[in-house]
Amino acid sequence: MAKYIVKRVILAIITMFLICFITFFAMNAIPGGPFNGEKAKSAAVMKVLNERYGLDKPVGVQFVNYMKNIMHGDFGVSLKTGRDIATTIRTRFAVSAKLGLMAILVALILGVVLGCVAALNRNKWQDHVIIFFVTLFTAMPSFVMASFLLLIFCIQLKIIPVWSTANPNYVLPVIALSLSPMANITRLTKTSMLDALGQDYVRTAKAKGVSPIKVIFVHTLRNALIPVITYVGPLTAAILTGSLVVENIFTIGGLGSAFVDSITNRDYTMIMGVTIFLAMIMVVMNLICDLVYKVVDPRIKFD
After folding, report:
1. CB atoms within 10 A of CB 90
2. What is the rounded CA–CA span in Å between residue 10 and residue 5?
3. pLDDT at 243 over 80
4. What is the rounded distance in angstroms from the CA atom of residue 96 to the CA atom of residue 167?
5. How far apart are the first and last CA of the chain?
6. Among 64, 184, 77, which residue's Cα sits nearest to residue 135?
7. What is the Cα 152 distance to its own chain's centre?
8. Rounded to the nearest 5°, which phi and psi values hold at 267?
9. How many C-beta atoms surround the C-beta of residue 111 within 10 A?
10. How far apart are CA 293 and CA 230, in angstroms?
């Protein structure tokens, strides 16, 4: 297992480097620059700004210098605001993480429960009702759901207040972020449960008189969770960094909003910092999911 972990860590480092390489050179290949605006700056001002942030050097040299700084934990400063990027990511991520963790928890619990109910009541009315809503939530993007919830419950009915930093209300953002993942988890759980229920070891357990509850939770659900774990890993990384559009709709000052602003403003250093941070979480979550496989199913061997 130790050999497998070392191998995955090496692959993670290579993946991170490729992400940095592609993102950096792709941004520099796009026409324009971070200091271009509606009001044109003089050539002297542009020269000073480029020298200050090292943009006057060849792109290859800029990349090498940036990677050296990254090795020391220095993400640089924003080209637009001058603020430290690491501090900005840490502050904004706290908001996105709180929202994301609640959405993941809701999606995971409801998705597994509904998937089990649908599998155990196959072709019955419970199954048909669950599949109807699952299909509806899967087809409806999160930003559409967010706009719908905001319009109905905040503007029309005025039951739930609009998001504010002084009195944040996470109900609607959590619902908007969790419905689509919940629908996917429900489908995965149902499919895996139906497959597990047809296995020989489940029939054997039933023939030996094992209680139905133990058959479901010990023999069936445990193996049915493996595809769910595969899906939840990347999902966690995506939601923890914030849903870009949903955060903008509810005016939540999370990492997603900061990422959208950085792209709009062509803030190279902020784009790189957030991209690397997202990639790091994605790689770590995938590694954790692979290790959780062993806990869920001891038959899995790591090579």
Report:
1. 12
2. 9
3. no
4. 16
5. 8
6. 184
7. 27
8. -85, 90
9. 25
10. 9
Class of residue 139 by CB neighbours under 10 A (exposed 0-12, middle 13-18, buried 19+): exposed
Q: Specify the pLDDT at position 119.
A: 86
Q: Are 289 and 8 in contact (CB under 8 A)?
A: no
Structure token digits, residue 125: 């009315």
Written in H, E and C, the secondary structure of the chain is: CHHHHHHHHHHHHHHHHHHHHHHHHHHHHCCCCCCCCCCCCCHHHHHHHHHHCCCCCCHHHHHHHHHHHHHCCCCCECCCCCCEHHHHHHHHHHHHHHHHHHHHHHHHHHHHHHHHHHHHCCCCHHHHHHHHHHHHHHHCCHHHHHHHHHHHHHHHCCCCCCCCCCCCCCHHHHHHHHHHHHHHHHHHHHHHHHHHHCCHHHHHHHHCCCCHHHHHHHHHHHHHHHHHHHHHHHHHHHHHCCCHHHHHHCCCCCHHHHHHHHHHCCCHHHHHHHHHHHHHHHHHHHHHHHHHHHHHCCCCCCC
Could you give the CA distance from residue 155 to residue 151 in angstroms, rounded to a whole number? 5
User: pLDDT category, 230, cuts 50, 70, 90?
Assistant: confident
Rounded alpha-carbon distances, angstroms, from residue 182 to 70, 99, 176, 195, 225: 36, 15, 11, 20, 14
pLDDT at 294: 64
Tell whether the model's pLDDT for residue 51 goes beyond 70: yes
Contact indicator for 242, 94 with CB cutoff of 8 Å: no
- Predicted TM-score of the model (pTM): 0.75
Summarised one tens digit per residue, pLDDT across range 135-191 is 888 888 887 888 888 888 888 888 887 767 667 788 888 888 888 889 989 998 888
